[in-house]
Design a protein that fits this description.
By secondary structure, this protein is mostly helical. It is built from seven helices and no strands. The chain has helices at 6-19, 24-34, 40-53, 58-71, 74-90, 93-99, 105-118. The radius of gyration is 14 Å and the shape is globular.
């Protein structure tokens, strides 16, 4: 996925989910693979499932917030971003590297705060 081979990544992630349908990381990655195409609603569903399966996983909350803001649902976006912000502090380094899109914890935290501000959220 990081190499831009989203179709190949999607195939592999679906294979993993066939084995372990409760893998939060796999659901998050599938959301990443799907969100830029016509499957944004499906991506949102996978991010929500990833967040449900692992309530301390910050990245699906952050991605949900970004997508919901892009759709104009500022209230729901702010709620997800507000949940993501404290979780980012404790997110595992492995997940930051795997799912951070090349950005580190500080950049992701700054992005989250900026998006919250853009939603008009008061903290």
């Amino acid at each position: 996925a990081q190499a831009g081979r989203l179709d190949d990544a999607e195939i592999e992630v679906r294979r993993l989910l066939d084995t372990d349908g409760l893998n939060a990381d796999a659901h998050h990655l599938l959301g990443v693979c799907l969100e830029d195409g016509a499957s944004v609603d499906v991506a949102i569903g996978h991010y929500r499932l990833a967040a449900y399966l692992d309530p301390v996983f910050a990245m699906p909350r952050l991605r949900l917030g970004l997508l919901l803001r892009r759709r104009g649902d500022l209230r729901a976006a702010a709620a997800e971003l507000d949940r993501a912000l404290p979780l980012l502090r404790n997110e595992g380094d492995e997940r930051i590297v795997l799912f951070g899109g090349g950005f580190g914890r500080i950049a992701l935290t700054t992005l989250c705060r900026s998006e919250l501000d853009a939603c008009g959220a008061r903290r």
